Amino acid sequence: MARCFLAFELTERSRQALQGWFEPFLQGLKAENSRVLHPVPAANWHTTLLFFSDLSEESMGRAWEQMRTWSGEKAWGALEFNWKGLALWPSERRPGLICLEAQVYSAHPPWPILNHLKQPPFNAGQGDHLRTYRPHITLARIRGRGSRSLVQDLKKALAHHAATPLPAIQLDRLSFFLSAKAPGNPIYPRAYTLEL
Fold first, then answer.
1. CA 130, 123, 187 angle in degrees (round to 5)?
2. Which of 181, 175, 169, 170 lies closest to 194 in space, CA to CA?
3. pLDDT single digits (tens) 99-117
4. Which of 20, 42, 63, 107 has its CA 20 to 30 A from that of 7?
5. Is 77 left (phi over 0), alpha (psi -120 to 50) or beta?
6. What's the rounded Cα separation, in Å, for the pair 21 and 27?
7. Is the dihedral of CA 149, 151, 157, 163 positive or negative?
8. Which domains does the chain have, with CATH numbers?
9. Contact present, 21 and 167 (Cβ < 8 Å)
């Protein structure tokens, strides 16, 4: 049994452009506050589709075969998310992450996975968020509970950085990642991947 998740991945060009766009934000923070941020390596950036806290290897394989079928049928569409900019997650009052977030996305036609969330193996995933899917990419984690001064500093930096034009973000792969806990950042080895 394993912790794992399905996710869309950025093109290499988008990854590099986003990295160059995000670095000035980090550099603009106060030194004492930048120390409590843990930037996520660009290689780990992704947009989670469905997370499984405990899934067998057999179930993972069955889920992936279904994902391959849907991808062959072009079920994901163009994946043109409307990215808004940086945001504190899950809320500004108690942030644990700094993310690039998009507006709520409604696929047309709806993704087939929405009709399978109550069926195995997808019913083992945490799929409630797919009903109102809000894509986001975690760019940094905040160690511990953010102090009031940290939150204020982050809000000022977010407002200032909002004037910087956001690069085009494109997604070109769907992958099944294993999620292994490790000191610092988690490790996400790919179990399966395919081009969209």
1. 75
2. 175
3. 999 999 988 889 999 999 9
4. 20
5. left
6. 11
7. negative
8. 2-195 (3.90.1140.10)
9. yes
Structure tokens at 9: 């991945």
- 103-128 b/e (C-beta count within 10 Å ≥ 16 → b): eebebeeebebeebeeeebbebbebe
Q: Is the dihedral of CA 93, 99, 100, 105 positive or negative?
A: negative
Helix (H, G, I), strand (E, B) or coil at 12: helix
Write the secondary structure of 70-133 as one string of H (helix), E (strand) and C (coil): HHHCCCCCCCCCCEEEEEEECCCCCCCEEEEEECCECCCCCCHHHHCCCCCCHHHEECHHHHHE
Q: Which amino acid is at 89?
A: W
pTM attached to this predicted model: 0.92
The C-alpha atoms of residue 85 and residue 21 are separated, in whole angstroms, by 11
User: How do residues 53-88 score in pLDDT, each as one tens digit?
Assistant: 999 999 999 999 999 999 999 999 888 899 999 999
Q: Which residues contact 25 (CB under 8 A, 6 or more apart)?
A: 86, 157, 158, 161
Are 174 and 8 within 8 A, CB to CB?
yes
Other C-beta atoms within 10 Å of 186: how many?
15
